[in-house]
């Protein structure tokens, strides 16, 4: 009788121990990048690249517009929760949070930025290198809060989520002449890859070891790009998708090179191109009804300030849409992609 009780409890304690070790393996989520991961830093910048107004955030807890380009939460939020940490990753510039909140997760991202500094300049947002400066400042505060030994452990064991690059093409290269006169598409890809490598080397020198590096999405299938597709209206721009695919192949090769070059570095390449393509090409399989247009407004071009509480025709149920606005996935799409990613993250880093 006694043994039949003891054995399940021993098993239960073992499970708790394993779970505790898994959570300890990733004590914090640290995020760099653009609007795909910015949890509200741009709220504190004089830029049009912000969304701290309705209907953004209408499905976020409390129905609050937080500065996330979404109706709810973003992938870093879901990943943080999935790894046993907090259900949201706070923005570093948000004054309602402090270092005790940031100790388990922080976002330095800035919507509208890119690997190319000139991309950030267009919308007057932070460059990726400014995000690194915030990371340095964060480390100083973290060491003062936790002590050097514990803070260094958090920095080395944290999961670093990096998601950036789309704006370099869709905001910068295709819309302004400067980079087009300097680079062909392949040369611009190489230029961005070089910048990405320099960025990774820099955060590695500051202690980062576990990186989740997101490639470009099928950017030709974003609703805004469908709208701008003059050759085949409302269809995906295959030319833009080809650029994203080519860039991603170069980024994957770069990941292999960096892991050989930098001892102890682990990088998981996140194929968001494939993840999002599945939702776009087989929406009904995932319970979506609309993949060509977004929830906000007509769904064809509204994003940022053009998606506001006065915008007519915004859908009632964003869960039926792959895209929330013409540039960004809905919360439900973010959750599906994050849930598919989590097993790979746990296998790579836990």
UniProtKB/TrEMBL annotation:
Question: What taxonomic classification does the UniProt entry list for its organism?
Answer: Eukaryota, Viridiplantae, Streptophyta, Embryophyta, Tracheophyta
* Chain segments annotated as coiled-coil in the UniProt record: none
Name used for this protein in its record: SGNH hydrolase-type esterase domain-containing protein
Q: Which CDD domains match?
A: SGNH_plant_lipase_like (cd01837)
Which PANTHER family does UniProt cross-reference here?
Answer: GDSL ESTERASE/LIPASE EXL3 (PTHR45642), GDSL-LIKE LIPASE_ACYLHYDROLASE (PTHR45642:SF51)
Name the protein family: Belongs to the 'GDSL' lipolytic enzyme family.
List the keywords (alphabetical). Answer: Signal
Query: Tell me, what is one Gene Ontology molecular-function annotation carried by this entry?
Result: hydrolase activity, acting on ester bonds
Give the signal peptide, or none: 1-25
Keyword Transferase assigned? no
Q: Name a Pfam family for this protein.
A: Lipase_GDSL
Q: Does the keyword Nucleus apply?
A: no
